[in-house]
Write a structure and sequence with these properties.
821 residues; alpha+beta; five-stranded antiparallel β-sheet
Length: 821
């Protein structure tokens, strides 16, 4: 080889021509007869094998030159010659010059972009570079070329082989050790991880490198027994405690904003690109998640649950942030055999926003139940953690002269309260506690946060038992619900049937309407009370009982709406038009439907029609709620309809899809299904939008819904408000008409519609637009409500308080409307 005059840098390569002898050998082999597969099969090939390693390297360089010729693929003999030479020589430790190695890397990078099925495979190029590095070591320009090659392969890494090759190239760029993994930087978690690794001593770093290498080698969602066995040994070598401390630093940062600029499909979503996870890091984190499967530790289960939640979360323009890592975390949780792991799966399922994630979580819960020999429902019930609570709904901890108390204060909230040694309430964490008990304060905040994440799943599971008609023996129910530190906070505020007799918890006993304790035994059958099975007088009496005892139920139970068959539905037979002809916001409906267990995917300006459906296997029923794009409907930038129009509700058999006459539907099933549909309308109707000013499309519907007849939900709301408002300080300014709460202010009189919450002002019926902000409180602090969850009622109350004292309003937008007559 003639190496004089060769110069290189990291971005370009100026390569000297190979020795003329190299060209002669190539041409002789290309012109020889026969289709030999090995160089040793012909005289010219033997001459190449006997040549000096530098000459052999030059022959390889000639092959690369040939491949870059535009006429190369037209000559079969040359294609065949290149294949034979490269397959025999590229894997050998030849004496390539520094410039030749750079050229090989440049060539491999170009070919990896055009196609990863080049005549010499990419793997053989990497073999040549690896042999050179082992003999000569790394240089900065070789590292730069390796990084560029890995990046190009990563963009095409859609097979396990390419992923492994990418990992191998990255490994070489870090020094050639097969026990080193390149972590993609500029993500919040990876920057911390890289800094942690650099700060370790040689022995600990070596052990971590082996763990990271083993992690990235896991290409499937679930590992083999062999992989797990090796992982267990690597974990023991490092130390379980050390591993846990480290991953508990890294995993909470997954999805946090980093400095990376990972591209997303639409430029308007660039703000989210540094919240994503690069594919190489996903593989690494997936393996690390499976290392966590060896722990029976609540903190590790919550760590995985939080990571899965972050990865299931939707990112605009992308979809779920990282389903692959989320599914792996869910699979790890399902492999664990303790309460907290199941609780995390349960709360993830409750919050899952799309069908694929719910399906994976259902599978994970099913696997966990199968291993335990229980049903999923039983497993979820016995697996609700206690978080160190010593009594129902309350956690106490003494810290010096102060006491902290975590209280479950609502269906979705847990708060930390502080008192001094005299029992006086404090507004914030005492300075002395912050100073002397910093770790305890952090722990209390974490416990409070974890409970708030869990509460929606507990609430949803209890409420859904109404439709499931789930029942328990008294002793099991008492353990799982009434006396459970977390579940008891809900169970003690609800009505239950005990062998058909209604009762509720009061001062340590289960009592009836008149306060007499019920006689209960371990075998007494318990189920959640539903008003459809009670006399109207009893329902009203129980509602008053809640008010008298200041009990706020976590969801509507005593005040639950009842839906019975109408004459019109008896005539139609197999379908109901009760909730047809409404215009609802599609995105909001899709989210709410999924929360309530319905299946639905968004419809758009393509062939995307689908029908929301609810599967009720315990009743052998399928419920369909027909919806269609609203007439001449607008679409979003991605082609999805903004609004949809509602139509019939139908029931059919689960497997045959044979229609079922509405008279054959059990009353409990009919009322709960129709309540769901009414909820969809009440929450998602465009009639609830106080800013609607279309003036054309859907205006007539908006006007009729905003100020029209009251639905069953609105009738319940009216009944509750009529019992509450007279006792408020503004009660004398309020009255009720057929459809409105009438508020007499200092400046004008206002009619607040009890269905939509929209407002008309007297005397001229002028519309008043008041838009509640997301940060508004659910209700004024001093107002008692007998149930949670009715946001419209909270908005009506807030507007009522505001307008009763309209002379104190400072908002110029509202004032301009009030003063315009």
């Amino acid at each position: 080889m003639e190496n004089s005059g060769t110069t290189t840098d990291a971005k370009s390569t100026i390569r000297a021509k190979p020795n003329p002898r190299c060209y002669q050998l190539f041409e002789a082999l290309a012109n020889s007869d026969g289709n030999n597969t090995a160089l040793s099969s012909c005289a010219t090939g033997v001459a190449i094998l006997d040549a000096d390693p530098a000459i052999q390297a030059g022959v390889v360089m000639v092959c690369l030159e040939q491949m870059e010729s535009p006429t190369f693929h037209y000559s079969f003999s040359r294609v065949y010659t290149v294949r034979t030479i490269c397959s025999n020589l590229l894997t050998k430790p030849l004496k390539y010059s520094h410039a030749e190695i750079l050229y090989i890397l440049d060539f491999a990078t170009r070919s990896s972009v055009e196609s990863h099925t080049t005549i010499p495979t990419l793997g053989t190029f990497v073999d040549a570079v690896e042999n050179h590095i082992l003999r000569e070591g790394l240089s900065e320009d070789i590292v730069a070329k390796l990084v560029a090659l890995a990046d190009k392969i990563g963009k095409r890494a859609n097979t396990n082989e390419l992923k492994k090759l990418m990992h191998r190239v990255k490994t070489l760029s870090l020094g050639g050790s097969q026990e080193t993994v390149a972590i993609v930087a500029e993500e919040a978690w990876s920057d911390v991880a890289i800094a942690d690794l650099h700060s370790m001593d040689a022995d600990e770093r070596s052990k971590w490198d082996r763990i990271l290498c083993h992690s990235v080698a896991l290409t499937s969602t679930e590992p083999s027994k062999k992989w797990l066995t090796q992982a267990k040994q690597l974990l023991n070598d490092l130390g379980a405690e050390r591993f846990q401390i480290t991953v508990m630093r890294w995993f909470p940062l997954i999805g946090k904003k980093g400095s990376a600029t990972i591209p997303v499909p639409q430029s308007q979503y660039e703000d989210h690109r540094n919240e994503l996870i690069s594919p190489p890091n996903v593989d690494l984190l997936k393996g690390l998640a499976w290392f966590c499967s060896f722990y029976q530790d609540d903190d590790m289960a919550r760590l995985l649950g939080d990571a899965a939640e972050v990865c299931f979360k939707k990112v605009p323009g992308v979809g779920a942030r990282c389903p692959k890592l989320a599914n792996a975390c869910a699979a790890v949780l399902s492999s664990m055999t303790f309460k907290e792991a199941v609780a995390q799966l349960s709360r993830l399922k409750t919050g899952a926003k799309n069908a694929s994630s719910r399906k994976q979580l259902d599978k994970s819960l099913g696997n966990a139940a199968q291993r335990s020999g229980m049903t999923v429902a039983d497993l979820e019930e016995i697996s609700v953690p206690e978080y160190g609570f010593t009594e129902v709904g309350k956690f106490l901890k003494q810290l010096g002269d102060y006491q902290a108390q975590i209280t479950i204060s609502g269906a979705r909230s847990a708060e930390v309260l502080w008192t001094d040694n005299k029992g006086r309430a404090l507004n914030s964490v005492p300075a002395a506690v912050k100073r002397d008990f910093a770790d305890d304060v952090k722990m209390l905040k974490k416990v409070s946060s974890d409970i708030e994440k869990l509460l929606p799943s507990v609430r949803y599971r209890i409420e859904s038992s109404l439709l499931q008609q789930r029942h328990w023996q008294y002793n099991a129910w008492r353990e799982r619900y009434l006396d459970h530190p977390i579940c008891g906070a809900f169970a003690r505020k609800l009505l239950w049937n005990f062998n058909g007799k209604a009762g509720i918890w009061l001062n340590g006993n289960i009592v009836n309407l008149v306060g007499n304790p019920l006689a209960l035994e371990d075998m007494t059958l318990v189920e959640l009370w539903h008003p459809i099975g009670a006399a109207a007088a009893d329902v009203l009496a129980w509602r008053q009982w809640l008010v008298d005892h200041n009990v706020t139920q976590p969801f509507k139970q005593a005040h639950r709406e009842i839906y019975v068959l109408t004459d019109a539905e008896r005539q139609t037979g197999t379908y109901s038009n009760r909730f047809a002809a409404h215009i609802i916001r599609q995105h909001q409906f899709a989210e709410l439907a999924k929360q309530r267990g319905w299946r639905y995917t968004l419809q758009g300006g393509w062939d995307s029609a689908n029908t929301p459906e609810l599967l009720l296997p315990q009743w052998d029923l399928r419920v369909e709620f027909w919806v269609d794009p609203a007439l001449e409907e607008n679409t979003t930038e991605t082609g999805i309809y903004v609004n949809i129009a509602t139509d019939q509700v139908r029931f059919s058999r689960l497997n045959t899809r044979d229609l079922v006459n509405l008279t054959e539907i059990m009353p409990i099933v009919f009322t709960e299904v129709m309540r769901d549909v009414d909820l969809f309308i009440g929450v998602c109707s465009i009639g609830n939008d106080p800013t609607w000013q279309d003036g054309g499309r859907h205006h007539d519907y908006w006007q009729s819904y905003s100020f029209g007849d009251l639905s069953a939900t609105a009738q319940t709301r009216k009944s509750v408000l009529k019992s509450i408002i007279p006792h408020l300080r503004i009660g004398s300014r309020c009255s009720f008409s057929d459809k409105f709460l009438v508020v007499k202010g200092d400046l004008r009189t206002y009619n607040i519609h009890l269905g939509s919450g929209n407002i008309l002002m007297e005397p001229n019926g002028q519309y008043l637009c008041i838009v509640p902000s997301r940060g508004d409180k659910e209700k004024p602090d001093d107002v008692f409500l007998p149930f949670e969850g009715d946001r419209t009622m909270s908005i009506i109350l807030s507007k009522c308080f505001l307008l009763a004292e309209d002379s104190k309003i400072k908002d110029p937008t509202i004032l301009r409307q009030i003063q315009r007559k």
